[in-house]
Write a structure and sequence with these properties.
Layout (H helix, E strand, L loop, with lengths): L4 H10 L3 H9 L4 E2 L2 E2 L1 H11 L1 H4 L1
Antiparallel strand pairs: 1-2
Helix pairs in contact: 2-3
Length: 54
Amino acid sequence: MKLSKNDSKTDKSNTSNPIDEYFQCLSYCDIHPKGIDNDCEVICMERHLKANYW
């Protein structure tokens, strides 16, 4: 089965971006006066960025 140009664009948009997933994860973290909850931020990094960037 051949993919048309439109199909290949759809496939690219459906693939997840680790950085976007990381930022989405951060959006669920608690925000304190001194910044984002450090434990939550570390969990997001390990879950979404570690395998791709470290």
